[in-house]
Design goal:
The structure is a homodimer of 681-residue chains. Chain A is an alpha/beta fold and 681 residues long. Chain A contains 19 helices and 29 strands. In chain A, a hairpin with a 3-residue loop joins strand 18 (383-388) and strand 19 (392-397). Chains A and B meet through helix 5, strand 9, helix 6 and strand 16 of A and helix 5, strand 9, helix 6 and strand 16 of B.
């Protein structure tokens, strides 16, 4: 505690502020609102199985004590209602509360630990698309086994198999070598009752325990180039019981994918180091989620993996060098099922690992995960799925056909190649508005909910400073510069403005826009002509890939756009469309798909039918290699303009006032299937 | 060389002596005989593929230079003809000769190295029983794989699988994780031609090499409690290209099986040490045979194993404690096929291991190997197979039915429990003859080919001394004592003889026979009443087991007896029958089956049909547990007499003059199915 008066809610309404970490979501609620209700109305995932009756203990949160100047909050224990009997009885860890009983009395910062975090997400996903039924690859069967009889000698395994056939109709099973030494002790310890785990796709007995056992667990892993995320699930129900993420330790071999491939090219055998690093990270995550959930790592009997082709290959111990150049040949594209131990992963000795299939050399198992989570093939709507990273992976289709490609966007959308670009981290500019008259910007910075023209902003960001601009910020600033007339439709920063506005200034032979003034020896943050060009190239590549698929599909409009991954979660889709990253579409029908790849991994983990579906679906996808597609270059050139040289973006213009587009002469209009299009205005 | 005149052959015929190691076989041949011819006439296995024309180089032997007083030989290079041109051209290692060109000029000791040793043995076996065709579990397939095409992206594995299906009709293969990293380098190094190894029983791709490859190898291993023997075979042809054996290092945990089981009972988890020891020995043998054959250990892609149930379990990492007591439950009786790596064996990363099935708690995969090598089920003759170790494993049957049991003979046949018993090693008495009039013995000792009444015997054994009596010696001495009337049919040493012959003397309350007189402070070697009783118990157990199976089969006579294993190779079957170890049978129809268990392992290694056959055959075997069979005790008591209380041994008596049998009264004759037998004389 300190001398400062406690922040006691909104001065007008008296509502209390609650900030949830790690999501960063925040809102104000009347005194007495439970933390769980607040979380629900903010869309923060907190698990609760008992309907908020303090019975299940799953909705635990942790109060973060102390001052949070960025949030303008001092958070302390007496800003929540006192512990109730059920909380005392449960013996919660210090600082832990049941969110269904803790009520807001003042402003608080509340952390949602992984074990409480993610259940809703899967249930929501499952509820979205299909029933919550699961059909895990690894199933438990409890059997009563006949005791040995000297008069009719037979091995314990034979009698166990007889029981499995008699009680469960299972026959012809293979048996893991690791099971054999466990067999006799388990049968005797369980008084001739035992539970076995059977990997059904390979009809293999992979584990045995004495007596009855109800639960085993699986790990769904999304191996990203930057971060690796793992979800621990109950295989019987599909329920997520813990989640964790960490940086991909391969980053020490190269920040982006291509530099890791280069590392292997320069250091023959270096793939072993990269493989070892990613596997060690998966094992560390497994330890972390197992600890959080109170299980042993040996209780994990199945795992599923998604990742881009290079991560996919490195996880499997395959050198990615062939993916570094044409013809971009995958070693293996089909789904891979292996003993986890053969992938160097020490879970249960019989644990299996399922790696989702890749689609093409640049369209990986992560996209397969997105496909599985989104299932565009179940709808008549023509859906566009876009997952933006260093490459953009693009899927377009509906019930009838599916197309996929990868566009070489480069890392500009991740803030690289931008003069003041940086990763999304505290201090990075994430939101920008530019007054079209004065050209004055307003910004917001990660870690602070205030806009730069609000009182207290300077103090709030004093800790981190304003350090650069992240991916979503760069999209917004360039779109706002375009809306304000600073950037012309052809991407030029209008030098004429420099004469009447100090924000626009000469920068060598081109011009730049000053977003944040320099101060105290710190250089100003400017958006340069090169920055705009980098984004133009990236967005043109993305749009050209999308348009290539649209041409193949023979369509002029998509019905729905889903943006997957972190980029999709953070950008404002309106600005993405204003800049022309994505084609025209009703803004209501553009949304974030969240971590759809990870969701796909979880679905494949707990449901063998999902595995069969994605394996079949991937075979149906028509793969298009942009690198050898002559149309791609033409489409790319057309897409350099903001939002586009020929696409009228009629729906967008109906919602947002855009600057006039340049006039295209009839001679410039492309021929062929696009020749029939209306003249652009 | 030394001053002594060279031993220049037989003083009468001038023939030269040749001694082959490691077999110890020896013989005299005219000057100019080739070493290969000498070997052949002695039954020494030396490989030769070119018909003795100095072309194939496979018949290499090594001249052992120096003095061999035990053999009465000085062996030196000029006791063989000079090197011929072909030998010079081949660049043989020092001391090496081609046995087809080296001719005897004097006495020599010649070592047959493993690489030259064993081919004939398998060819003989194969020629015995069936055609030499093989159908290995792991087969090689060479394919030409389509190159990747960006326009139709597919993984290299998919195109490899397409080629395997197109060229060889193979589809739906699983793929080992270890293959995936090899795939792309192999296809490119081989210019899109590659050879893959497929484990056909599991339809799994286990290995890949660039270009064409013609040969891979397998290892057949006989895991005995005392020694482990390994044969390296070409999988394509079944040919044995190297062999090696070594002591089972588990001996440090206990000389016999039960003491090893006790070790595990006393040291929970101790099975890991025993498993580690046997696996390390298998790997060392693999290294040895691979080196001898000039291949890499990684070229071994399949392995087969036989062993008694305890060795079988320990190889698989299973604690043998359940086998140490009733109900003697095997963990697994069916055949086991696993990746060799899962058994802790580092051959090729995808290598498989096949462990033959066990038959019952005391009748193991070694007996399955004997069954496979001997195939009693293919004949109408009623065949008795006996494999004597600490237990005797017994199989009886023909085309119609097969029976098996194990008899608790104890280790007396191995020289244990005998006052002067020892393992078969230089210095051990292996042959005995007793003059029925004077009761004077003549003996032969391992490591010396002279009988004790021949000139030079004392000098020849001076080095080792006469240290004890081995298994075959103890059978002979007691049988000869019986033939000489020293041992009466009830097993008593006849004390009445002590009055008139110094060889028979009082030994406490019983009598003993002095086989070797004491000298120079060395105690005499005597056969005591306890020694005779130990052999009586062992032989009665063996006979009772055999008779139990004969009763089950409803037969009074067997047509053929095959004695497997080292004991069977060394004993004189006549003496075994005189003592009543085995039932009456024409001596012409009693023979050694050699290392039939090891032969069975080799057959299973190179032929999947043999695996199916033995798996089916083992299921057909009717297992009889002597420990719970009431008849066993009665049969055991009858079998205590020498040769037997009721069995007339008519065939044997026609060939050998036996002492009169004691008269059995009609009241003593057993009832039931034996009641109709002729009265014994």
């Amino acid at each position: 505690m300190n001398e400062r008066p406690r922040p006691e809610g909104d001065p007008v309404t008296g509502d209390k502020l609650v900030v949830f970490t790690p999501s960063g979501r925040r809102g104000r609620f009347p005194v007495g609102t439970t933390v769980l209700d607040a979380a629900r109305s903010l869309g923060v995932d907190i698990e609760s199985a008992c309907g908020g009756n303090a019975q299940c203990g799953r909705c635990q949160v942790e109060l973060c004590e102390g001052e949070y100047p960025k949030h303008g909050v001092t958070s302390c224990a007496d800003h929540l209602s006192a512990l109730v009997t059920e909380e005392h009885e449960r013996g919660l860890a210090p600082g832990r509360r049941l969110s269904c009983t803790a009520r807001l009395l003042g402003d608080v910062v509340v952390d949602v630990p992984p074990a409480s975090q993610v259940h809703r997400q899967v249930v929501r996903k499952a509820a979205d698309a299909r029933t919550v039924e699961t059909e895990p690859a690894v199933r438990l069967y409890t059997v009563e086994v006949q005791q040995p009889d000297m008069h009719s000698p037979s091995g314990d395994l034979t009698r166990l198999e007889d029981a499995l056939e008699f009680e469960h109709g299972l026959s012809g099973l293979a048996v893991d070598a690791a099971v054999l030494p466990q067999l006799q002790p388990a049968l005797r310890a369980g008084a001739w009752v035992a539970t076995v785990a059977v990997h059904l796709p390979h009809r293999t007995l992979i584990g045995i325990w004495p007596g009855r056992r109800e639960e085993v667990y699986g790990l769904a892993v999304d191996v990203g180039s930057t971060t690796i995320a793992a979800h621990l699930c109950r295989l019987g129900t599909g329920e997520v019981i813990a989640a964790a993420g960490r940086m991909n330790p391969q980053i020490r071999f190269g920040e982006d994918l291509m530099s890791r491939v280069s590392y292997v090219m320069m250091h023959p055998g270096g793939e072993k180091e990269l493989t070892g690093a990613v596997r060690a990270a998966v094992e560390a995550l497994a330890d972390e989620v197992a600890r959080d959930a109170g299980i042993a790592r040996e209780d994990i009997v199945d795992a599923s993996f998604v990742g881009n082709p290079i991560m996919h290959h490195l996880l499997l111990g395959i050198s990615p060098v062939e993916l570094g150049g044409a013809p971009f040949a995958l070693a293996v594209d089909r789904a891979v099922t292996q003993p986890a131990a053969e992938l160097g992963l020490a879970f249960h000795p019989g644990a299996r690992a399922y790696v989702l299939p890749c689609i093409a050399g640049h369209v990986g198992a992560d996209t397969a995960g997105v496909l599985l989570a989104e299932r565009p093939d179940l709808s008549d709507d023509m859906t566009l799925l876009v997952d933006v990273g260093t490459n953009a992976e693009i899927v377009l289709g509906n019930r009838r056909r599916l197309f996929a490609c990868s566009s070489p966007t480069g890392p500009a959308f991740e803030g690289a190649q931008i003069s003041c670009g940086q990763r999304a981290a505290p201090g990075a500019i994430e939101r920008v508005r530019i007054d079209p008259v004065t050209l004055e910007p307003r910004i917001r910075v990660i870690g602070c909910e205030l806009w730069s023209d609000e009182a207290g902003f300077a103090e709030a960001v004093a800790g981190t400073g304003i350090t650069g601009i992240c991916g979503s910020g760069i999209i917004e600033v360039i779109a706002e510069m375009y809306l304000a007339g600073i950037v012309l439709p052809d991407g030029t920063i209008d030098g004429a403005l420099a004469e009447r506005n100090a924000r626009v200034r000469q920068d060598g032979r081109t011009y730049a826009y000053e977003l944040v003034a320099g101060a105290e020896g710190r250089a100003p943050l400017c958006i340069t002509q090169n920055d705009v060009r980098a984004i133009q190239l990236a967005k043109a590549a993305l749009y050209a890939g999308v348009r290539l698929l649209m041409e193949r599909a023979g369509i002029e409009r998509v019905d729905r756009i889903r943006l997957a991954g972190a980029f999709g979660s953070h950008i404002d889709v309106k600005y993405a469309m204003i800049l022309g990253l994505i084609p025209d579409c009703s803004l209501d029908h553009v949304s974030s798909a969240g971590n759809a790849a990870g969701t796909g991994a979880r679905m494949a983990l707990v449901d063998v039918r999902a595995r069969r579906e994605i394996e079949n679906l991937v075979r149906r996808v028509e793969k298009i290699e942009t690198a050898v597609e002559p149309r791609f270059q033409a489409l790319f050139v057309d897409a350099m303009a903001i939002p586009h040289r020929t696409d009228p973006y009629e729906t967008l213009r109906a919602a947002v006032t855009l600057p006039e587009m340049p006039t295209a002469t009839a001679a410039e209009a492309p021929r062929g299937r696009r020749a029939g299009r209306r003249a652009v205005r």
